[in-house]
Write a structure and sequence with these properties.
With 592 residues, the chain is of the alpha/beta class. The protein has 20 helices and 12 strands. It has helices at 2-25, 29-61, 66-115, 118-124, 126-150, 153-168, 173-217, 219-224, 228-280, 286-328, 389-394, 419-425, 440-444, 453-462, 466-471, 489-502, 519-532, 545-548, 568-574, 576-591; strands at residues 349-356, 366-373, 378-382, 404-409, 412-413, 426-429, 438-439, 479-480, 507-511, 537-541, 553-558, 561-566. α17 links the parallel β9 (507-511) and β10. The protein binds 5-Methyluridine triphosphate and magnesium ion (MG).
């Protein structure tokens, strides 16, 4: 059973860990070669030292030959110097390689994740993607570091140590055959026990990450509902699970060190005991005995290092698998191999009998959606929450692909366009406005880095954001915290609108982008927008009827279907659903 586990572990190792290391260390082959050479030099020097020491004792000290002691001592110094210098050089190149591979691997994970569509990110979940790109890469990097530092030293030290020890005294060789396998078996047993625990540990780290992330992001809600005790308990639970696994791992580690040191000391005692008898009998010299002992210790150290490394393999291989899972994902939405370039850059949007369902969902959220929006037109979409408005907009910039039907931009299906081409022409102001940490300026330039300050201010003026940015001490250089949490909801919305305006797109998608604004600001903003966007195609999702009364066409969405369409006046007469929405808002306003 244990053997089965071990062989499973080894084949696993062969799969992902080796693939990753092989692929990512390729550019650093010259460094690795340097590591090999320096380690070889350092190990040979280390193996030479005890035998020089033995010579000093047996031929120098025993015979009182001071010249010999000086000469051999000088050689020893030289060899020791070579050993140290080579070891340092080896570690230097080994570390550089491991760190560089770690960096490349992190870059690869990051690059892959940025290529993910919304669907791919949801399939993993953000917390585990973060752990995989940081902690997991770190584990692989650590293994590589250890591996490079001991890779050559360990086997040469073992084999060389055994040969050198046997050269000193053959009769004591049985000590090597007993102590080395004993150490290997003890440490190996512990390693096999540790393997499954490490896998659990990585999962628990994911879990802690998930809980922590959710709580930090939702801290205001937690406060508002006085949920601190509950949340503390939830974190406590996750924390305790991680602690428990760590403790079980710790318990095995605790066994490891005494076991190893017991074997080392028993071996030393045995060498001194049996060797001492042979020295007494005149069959062995004192120097040889010391050398033999040193060799045996060197061998055991090497075995120990080897097994320590072996111990890191299971955890690193779990991590490598997890990294591999990310790297192996073929992004579900990618650019076409030979993208088409549409003849015109007008910005005509057409949905042709589009049906869409979220991955894993039973029923579609959008069914048979057809409409066309032309430059100069404003199309409004209205409907109750959950009707599918956001989902509808997300199909144009290809956050998702429809399951049936087509979305066309200037007559070309969007899946035949380069996504960069789409985003250059289509600006989406998302329902949940998101800003990045940095300055206001940095956020506004997000879609067009080369925009001038004048363009930024123009966009802010239209988005009704000019005055509050001017009021800030640093103006455009004012700091924005991650997610834009240090500005109000309405300010965030206006900055997001300005960000879209800066890119001067052909198509504007506003997903409920005016909801956080008061009625007066909303009106002013729409008046200014009308002027700026008069040649562009505008699709507005809105809650307030007042926002959309002037739209050229209003689509009434219910349960993922367009139930009615027409102008405000037409719909007031013909559409019961629209009438209901209007009535509900009128009564609210009357009461207020
Ligand atoms: C429509 C489901 C949601 C709802 C339906 C964004 C999203 C939505 N849904 C998912 O399953 N996964 C998702 O990632 O789709 O949702 P919507 O398009 O967001 O509706 P809306 O924009 O009309 O609503 P609102 O509240 O913004 O006015 O059933 O469960
Ligand atoms: Mg929505």
């Amino acid at each position: 059973m244990r053997m089965a586990q071990l062989s499973v572990a080894i084949t696993r190792v062969e799969s992902m860990l080796l693939t990753l290391i092989r692929r990512y260390s390729k550019p650093y082959m010259s460094y690795i070669l340097a590591v090999l050479v320096f380690q070889l030099a350092s190990t040979i020097a280390a193996l030479y030292l005890p035998s020089l020491n033995a010579q000093i004792i047996d031929q120098g000290v025993a015979r009182g030959d001071t010249d010999f002691i000086w000469q051999t001592g000088a050689v020893m110094l030289l060899v020791a110097f070579v050993q140290v210098a080579a070891a340092i050089a080896g570690v230097y190149f080994g570390s550089r390689t491991a760190m560089a591979v770690g960096r490349d691997l992190r870059r690869a994970v990051f690059g892959k994740v940025t290529s993910f569509s919304a669907k791919d990110v949801n399939a993993f979940g953000a917390p585990t993607l973060i752990t995989r790109g940081t902690n997991d890469v770190q584990q692989v990097q650590m293994l590589l570091l250890m591996g490079l530092n001991f890779m050559v030293a360990t086997p040469i030290m073992c084999v060389g140590g055994i040969i050198m020890a046997l050269r000193e005294d053959l009769n004591l060789s049985w000590l090597v055959w007993v102590s080395v396998p004993l150490l290997a078996v003890v440490v190996g047993y512990l390693v096999v026990r540790l393997m499954p625990l490490f896998r659990t540990m990585q999962r628990k780290i994911d879990r802690i990450n998930a809980v922590l992330r959710e709580q930090i992001i939702g801290i205001r809600v937690v406060r508002a509902f006085v949920r601190e005790p509950y949340e503390t308990e939830r974190f406590g639970g996750a924390n305790k699970e991680l602690t428990d696994v760590s403790l079980r791992i710790g318990a095995l580690f605790v066994l490891m060190f005494p076991a190893i040191s017991m074997i080392l000391h028993l071996s030393t005692a045995a060498v001194l005991w049996f060797g001492g008898q042979r020295v007494d009998a005149g069959a062995m010299q004192v120097g040889s005995l010391t050398a033999f002992l040193q060799y045996l210790l060197q061998i055991l150290m090497a075995v120990m290092m080897g097994t320590f490394m072996a111990m890191m393999i299971p955890r690193a291989s779990v991590c490598a698998d997890r990294i591999g899972e990310v790297l192996d994902v073929e992004p579900s939405i990618h650019d076409p191999l030979s993208p088409e370039a549409p003849a015109s850059l007008a910005g005509v949007v057409e949905y042709r009998d589009v049906t869409f369902a979220y991955p894993g969902a039973e029923s579609p959220v959008l069914s048979n959606i057809s409409f066309t929006a032309r430059p100069g037109q404003t199309i409004a979409i209205i409907g109750s929450t959950g009707a599918g408005k956001t989902s509808l907009l997300s199909l144009l910039p290809r956050l998702y692909d429809p399951v049936a039907g087509q979305v066309l931009l200037d007559g070309v299906p969007v899946d035949r366009l380069d996504r960069a081409e789409i985003t250059r022409r289509v600006a989406l102001v998302p329902q949940r406005p998101y800003l990045f940490s940095g300055t206001i300026e940095h956020n506004l330039r997000f879609g067009k880095t080369e925009a001038t300050d004048q363009e930024l201010w123009d966009a802010l003026r239209v988005a009704q954001g000019e005055s509050f940015v001017r009021e800030k001490k640093n103006g455009l250089d004012a700091r924005i915290s991650q997610g834009g949490t240090n500005v109000s909801g309405g300010q965030r919305q206006r900055l997001c609108i300005a960000r879209a305006l800066v890119t001067k797109p052909r198509v504007y998608l506003f997903d409920d982008s005016f909801s956080a604004l008061d009625v007066a600001t909303d009106a002013r903003l729409r008046a200014a927008l009308k002027e700026t966007t008069k040649d562009a195609t505008v699709i507005i999702v809105a809650q307030r009827i007042s926002t959309i009364t002037e739209a050229d066409q209003i689509l009434v969405l219910d349960n993922g279907r367009i139930v009615d369409r027409g102008s405000h006046e037409e719909l007031l007469e013909t559409s019961p659903t629209y009438q209901e929405i209007v009535e509900s808002q009128l009564s609210v306003e009357e009461v207020a």
